Amino acid sequence: MGLPELRGRTAVVTGASRGLGAGLARAFAAHGLQLGLCARGPIEAPGAALVESLDVRDLEALRGFAARVGERFGHIDLWVGNAGVLAPIGPLRDVPPAAWRENVEINLIGVFNGARAYLEQLRAHPGPGVLIHVSSGAARRGYAGWSAYCAAKAGVDRLTESLQLEEAASGLRCHAVSPGLVDTDMQAEIRATEPDRFPEVGRFIEAKRSGAFNTPDFVARHLLEIAFDPDRAEPVVCSLPRPDPPTPAGRSA
């Protein structure tokens, strides 16, 4: 069937100030969606958008933001939990404990906070909803140097599966989606890492050389299909198609 008319529907994107989040916001606006956008940094708001600066580690801030999106636009049809960080990179034995904890607080606790805020809004403005968490291939296998990121993203996948079991009867669909390689600031951070801190850095340098990336528009289209195309059925935890040609190791990050 493909995508239905999306004008008048509302989506929230966290971490919308740069990278994939900013790209999703632009693509969603082009499809006519009303947007709630939040991030710690400044956001360029496309289309009809409510924009706020906040930290996803702050549950009360997210609750307030979600409530204001609901007050302005009504029912929130789609919530994309995208906010995330990669650092610290390096062997666990060398990583400052505070930096490791901060990664998990943003990548996992921040996802919990967003899901909690969205659930409250679905009860305030009833109707079917879709919750998509941006996951990673790092949720399904470990990478030397990425212990915090891998652990947090694995937690995101299991949290999403549990939430789907809890909320299926309510009309909420939940997905943890690995978008594949997208050439964002995070990818630049990876490529700038010394091999002694991240031994697989060469694979990402090769991906840049060969242009083996998914684009934000490509990712946005697939997320909208997952959310709104009634003929597209995806498992709770899923990965988008890999770019062509594939990355040398054939994995998404």
Tell me roughly what share of residues is in helical segments: 40-55%
Overall number of structural domains: 1
Derived from helix and strand composition plus strand pairing, the structural class reads alpha/beta
Principal-axes geometry comes out as: globular
Oligomer: single chain
What pattern of helices and strands is seen along the backbone?
EHEEHEHEHEHHHE
Largest sheet: 7 strands, parallel
- The average pLDDT value, as a whole number, equals 93
Specify the CATH class.
Alpha Beta
Q: Output the number of helix runs.
A: 7
Question: For this structure, what is the CATH homologous superfamily?
Answer: NAD(P)-binding Rossmann-like Domain
Alpha-carbon distance between the termini? Answer: 30 Å
Give the strand content: 5-15%
Mind telling me which CATH architecture this is? 3-Layer(aba) Sandwich
CATH topology: Rossmann fold
Low-confidence stretches: 244-253
Using brief descriptors, characterize the structure shown.
Rossmann fold; alpha/beta; single chain; 7 helices
Word description of this protein:
- The protein has 253 residues and is an alpha/beta fold.
- It has a single domain (10-182, 215-239), classed as Rossmann fold (3-Layer(aba) Sandwich).
- The chain has 7 helices and 7 strands; from the N terminus they run βαββαβαβαβαααβ.
- It has a 7-stranded parallel β-sheet with strand order 3-2-1-4-5-6-7, with helices on both faces.
- β4 (78-81), α3 and β5 form a beta-alpha-beta unit.
- α1 (19-30) crosses α7 (216-228) and α3 packs parallel to α4.
- The longest helix has 28 residues, at 97-124.
- The radius of gyration is 17 Å and the shape is globular.
- The model is unreliable at 244-253 (pLDDT under 50).
